[in-house]
Automatic annotation (TrEMBL):
It comes from the Bacteria. This is C-type cytochrome. Residues 26-111, 125-213 form the Cytochrome c domain. Residues 1-23 form the signal peptide. Keywords: Heme, Iron, Metal-binding, Signal. PROSITE patterns: CYTC (PS51007). Pfam families: Cytochrom_C. Transmembrane segments: none annotated. InterPro entries: Cyt_c-like_dom, Cyt_c-like_dom_sf, Cytochrome_c4-like, Cytochrome_c_Oxidase_Subunit.
Length: 230
């Protein structure tokens, strides 16, 4: 019964995250140029690491089809140093606020590199799939799919996709929330989730979502195949 109540509170919290007005501003054309060419010496072309279509790769998260508000918040956090990464901090700092808006608008409107499907009937032995689709209510851990959508494809502007992210990247983000080297994000939802995951949970759920992406790569548009393979 208290589980239901907890879930209701979470879902209400998720519904309350509206898309801000500035998501409508910014220039997609400017974003396309930044993605392909960068800006001066300080900002390398995003495509060089995140892929020609923002599909991501070995060590680099996908950007295509991810919510604009989420992507811009990440660039702001890299720029301020609240989110730490030696490659992305100087790049984000080298962009003006208007350029951060444009480039994230551009990526949010690209088609997602893949559409993943959750394991149909996970058993408790599939620790990663179970956590992703059922959660663990005894420890008040909701299913990841509750916020990240079925198949980890992402939901709306604030809940990023997980399918196809590199396993090491997912694990590093969960650790960053535990260490406080990544800002808590909307309502501190992810910090709360990460704080309840042990090392075995992190390993299992990270490889589950990375694997979902690899499995779905077979259904990706031509040219995207194999890109998500770590
Ligand atoms: C030299 C390689 C490199 C280049 C060039 C690069 N990135 Fe990144 N980017 C990374 C890495 C590595 C990460 C993961 C950082 C982490 O682990 O937190 C990342 C993460 C991100 C994230 C966070 C994604 C998420 O899911 O939270 C965004 C947004 C992003 N980059 C946008 C850009 C944009 C926009 C550009 C071009 C202006 C760009 N990147 C250029 C390497 C690069
Ligand atoms: C109650 C909602 C909620 C639940 C449940 C949830 N998440 Fe999240 N998650 C979020 C939000 C919101 C963000 C964006 C945080 C930010 O803006 O920095 C996020 C971001 C992430 C990211 C960062 C993705 C990226 O591109 O950098 C990872 C990794 C992640 N979640 C993993 C998980 C895992 C694994 C689970 C299940 C164990 C889970 N989440 C459950 C709300 C949730």
């Amino acid at each position: 019964m208290s589980d239901d109540k907890q879930l209701l509170i979470l879902l209400l919290a998720c519904a309350g995250l509206a898309t801000p007005a500035w998501a409508q501003d910014g220039s997609i054309e400017q974003g396309r140029q930044l993605a392909a060419q960068g800006a001066g010496a300080a900002v390398a072309a995003c495509a060089g690491c995140h892929g020609a279509r923002g599909e991501g790769g070995a060590a680099f998260p996908r950007l295509a089809g991810t919510g604009q508000a989420y992507l811009q918040a990440q660039l702001e956090a890299f720029a301020s140093g609240a989110r730490k990464n030696p490659l992305m901090q100087p790049i984000a700092q080298g962009l003006t606020p208007a350029q951060r808006k444009s480039v994230t608008l551009y990526y949010s409107q690209l088609p997602p590199p893949l559409q993943a499907v959750d394991a149909a009937r996970p058993t408790p032995a599939d620790a990663g799939a179970w956590l992703a689709t059922r959660g663990r209510w005894a420890d008040q851990v909701p299913a990841c799919a509750q916020c990240h959508g079925p198949g980890g494809n992402g939901v709306g502007a604030h809940f990023p996709p997980l399918a196809g992210l590199p396993a090491a990247y997912i694990a590093a983000q969960l650790q960053a929330w535990k260490d406080g080297t990544r800002p808590p994000g909307p309502l501190g939802l992810m910090q709360a989730v990460a704080s309840k995951l042990g090392p075995a949970d992190v390993g299992a759920v990270s490889s589950y979502y990375a694997g979902l992406g690899a499995a779905a790569a077979g259904t990706a548009p031509p040219g995207e195949k194999g890109k998500a393979t770590p």
